[in-house]
């Protein structure tokens, strides 16, 4: 890696700024609020600034992925859902990996799945290696020999003891100055090492990430799949007999399973309950995640088979049959999820499972379409882009509010007593507060008490007032929830007082 001294110093300065800003912005609760979006925006702007000489085309690509990363980070600002955090982080890493691939002159649309995976795992390695190369290439020794730097260092050595003496004298002379001096001393003795460590780590992270966005540093190190291909040649060259045996066996097994599931899928609740020892809950809970795993594993196998030097005339028709079987299996999994949710209500995990299932089903159909049309070219990028779109749509859909509304509606409108875990709904986060307040008076008395107590405890009171002072933790959903609870505060207190649950 060879960079001019000015560019090196610019990257170091920008990384230190990002590290210092990150240390200030990120509260102990984490970067899952407006602070995270601000930091991502700053990182994107600095990346564009450093790469301003990279050409209009490259800046447009960098702006696109930076914009996507920033847009996704906003989901954690407008939504109060912990379940979204790992998905948002995964999308952020995926965007950074895409930038790294394009910096290495790779075409995303034509890239295969293995190339996306290699870039994903190569990203942290590239960040670390490029950061240490940057530090190693910095002209520290030349700087030390500079007469001006020597003068600055001598001045600091001379003034340091003078500053200590004068500070002590001023502290003895003025009580107010002494108070600030003691506060500064406490800060230095307790919090300063933590801040220094935080700034150092975030600066190193920022520098490594910025270096990965620079095309002039790209030599395709860490992104080559050729050594892996050479070691896996025995799996990449399959004869007609092998293809027929592998695909034929899988198709046979899947067809047998589909035939067994056929009656359950179209027979409904009554058919399931007629089976001895099989309850609806057991049926729905037992096989759902296993079927999702089967679908995902099948996609992996098909991707591997399609990348081999096999007879496509044998592989393609069998692949179509296998995908149709998998889609039927996913329909069975969807029915299990529907029946279970219909009986026991929705949860966030079930909503996320449904979203993942739809994403998998769409990619299976896309695989067949691209396989028949272009030999699979474009599938990996479509899978990559649809994953990002799924996360964005999921966040915008407000899953916590959906879960709350559906469960409350079922409990209120059902002619039979519908089981509902009201405490679970109150703990879904701030997104669940509006639907809870809308329908609190339709609930039984004891559930009204629980909702009132939980909402006052979580979104009202002195503790909440203290949280308003820290703008770094601001979140749109939580802000709206606090405002709604404040608006209905006395009403909620009245409901809570009926069972003496008023928070102190």
Write the layout of secondary structure elements.
Elements: H1 5-25, H2 34-50, H3 56-73, H4 75-78, H5 84-103, H6 113-137, H7 140-144, H8 147-173, H9 175-212, H10 226-231, H11 233-236, H12 240-274, H13 280-307, H14 312-344, H15 348-374, H16 379-397, H17 399-413, H18 422-426, H19 433-438, H20 445-459, H21 462-467, H22 476-487, H23 489-497
Helix pairs in contact: 1-2, 1-9, 2-3, 3-5, 5-6, 5-16, 6-9, 8-9, 12-14, 13-14, 13-15, 14-15, 15-16, 20-23
User: What would the average pLDDT be, to the nearest integer?
Assistant: 79
Order of helices and strands: HHHHHHHHHHHHHHHHHHHHHHH
- DSSP helix count? 23
Structural class: mainly alpha
| Low-pLDDT segments, ≥5 res | 225-235
Give the DSSP E fraction (strand runs of 2 or more residues). Answer: under 5%
Could you give a short account of the major beta sheet? none
Q: Which outline best applies?
A: flat
The rounded distance between the terminal residues' Cα atoms is 61 Å
Summarize the model shown.
The chain is mainly α and 504 residues long. Helix content is 78%, strand content 0%.
What do you see in this structure?
It is a single chain. The chain is built from 23 helices and no strands. The chain is an all-alpha fold and 504 residues long. The model is unreliable at 225-235 (pLDDT under 50).
Features:
single chain, 504 residues, mainly alpha
